[in-house]
Amino acid sequence: MTTATKKDEKATALTPKREEVGIVISNKMQKTIVVKLDRRIRHAKYGKFLTKTKKVKAHDEANTAKIGDLVLLVATRPLSKDKRYALKEVLRKASGVI
């Protein structure tokens, strides 16, 4: 039995949580923010770089993130129907100029 627990501890220690960096586009909900995640991919045939965008909902317990902030998200267990991420930290505050 002790080997199984050591194996489980080792497996969790080696697999870090998935982290994403994105920009907050909405904070109208309580304890929830909507974050825009961009990723750049190269077109297979033409070589042009394309930007793919995905909007995800993330848990913000203290309601600290504001629109335009650059945030670091970490993957979590499903918190609701749509929320699969949690706010880890605000990397850069929005400048306030739109």
Can you describe what's shown?
- With 98 residues, the protein is mainly beta.
- The chain has a single domain, classed as OB fold (Dihydrolipoamide Acetyltransferase, E2P), CATH 2.40.50.
- It has one helix and five strands; from the N terminus they run H-E-E-E-E-E.
- The chain has one helix at 2-14; strands at residues 19-26, 32-42, 49-59, 70-75, 83-92.
- Strands 1-2-3-5-4 form a five-stranded mixed beta barrel.
- It starts with a helix and ends in a 6-residue tail after the last strand.
- The mean pLDDT is 89.
* Beta-strand residue fraction: over 45%
Low-confidence stretches: none
What is the CATH architecture term? Beta Barrel
Fold-level CATH name: OB fold (Dihydrolipoamide Acetyltransferase, E2P)
Please give the largest β-sheet. 5 strands, mixed, barrel
The number of distinct β-strands equals 5
Please state the structural category. mainly beta
CATH superfamily: Nucleic acid-binding proteins
CATH secondary-structure class: Mainly Beta
SSE succession: HEEEEE
Give the neighbour order of strands across the main sheet.
1-2-3-5-4
Cα shape: globular
Specify the number of helices.
1
Cα(first) to Cα(last) distance is 59 Å
